[in-house]
Amino acid sequence: MRSKLIVAVAALVLAACQTTQGTHQIYPPASGPQAEPLPPPPAQPEPKPLEAPAVVEPPAPPLASFPKSAEQISGSAVTALMKQARQYRSAGQPDRAAGVLERALRIEPRNYFVWSALGQAYLAQKNYLQAESVAQKSNALARGNVYVAVENWKTIAAARDARGDAIGALQASAQVEALQAQLSAAPGTP
Q: Is residue 140 part of a domain?
């Protein structure tokens, strides 16, 4: 009984899906007075090509709005650690300087001056890939702070040069020159 029911449902489904071919009916034209032709549609003006909207870049913030040193944006603990790291680097101990700066980053992880100093410490350790990576991180966090970007690009240029990437070093040096020119052109900059 069940199989007959399945067969019946399948037959109904197939019958509903069946199409007839060649049974189109053509209707004769309507009888009566012939309608007058419709007037042509009014002429449409040519559409104007779409123009790309003008991109207006916001003006760069004045250089005076950027801090020039870590002391201007850091807490007292990070300022003390940065001073200690400078002393270690001056004493030729880049490993200790890096350790102190890594501690400072645990306190202020978004402090781009600390990242920049860490890049310089890695450069002194001859850890060139890490030095470049950390300097780029500092640039990303600095968001256009030219004062720190100059130092970062110097680090990047030196790291690339030490790795034998002459073209990359030249590109980074060009960034340094462009940033230094920007600093020189700024009013009130020595």
A: yes
Separation between Cα atoms, residue 85 and residue 73, nearest integer Å? 17
Tokens of 88: 């270690």
The count of structural domains within the chain is 1
On whether residue 113 sits in a domain, the answer given is yes
What is the tens place of the pLDDT at every residue in 89-140?
999 999 999 999 999 999 999 999 999 999 999 999 999 999 999 999 999 9
Strand ranges in 25-90 using DSSP code E only, listed in sequence order: none
- In whole angstroms, give the CA distance from residue 156 to residue 172: 6
Residue 18 lies in a domain: no
Is there a contact between 78 and 111 (Cβ–Cβ < 8 Å)? yes
Q: Could you tell me the CATH number of the domain that includes residue 156? A: 1.25.40.10
Q: State how far the Cα of 95 lies from the Cα of 125, in Å rounded to an integer.
A: 7
Q: Residue 43's pLDDT band (boundaries 50, 70, 90)?
A: confident
89, amino acid identity: R
For the entire predicted model, the pTM comes to 0.65
Comparing CA positions, the residue from 83, 101, 63, 94 lying closest to residue 187 is 63
Residue 111: CB atoms within 10 A of its CB come to 22
Range of the domain at 109: 74-185
Q: How many CA atoms lie within 13 A of 108 on its CB side?
A: 22
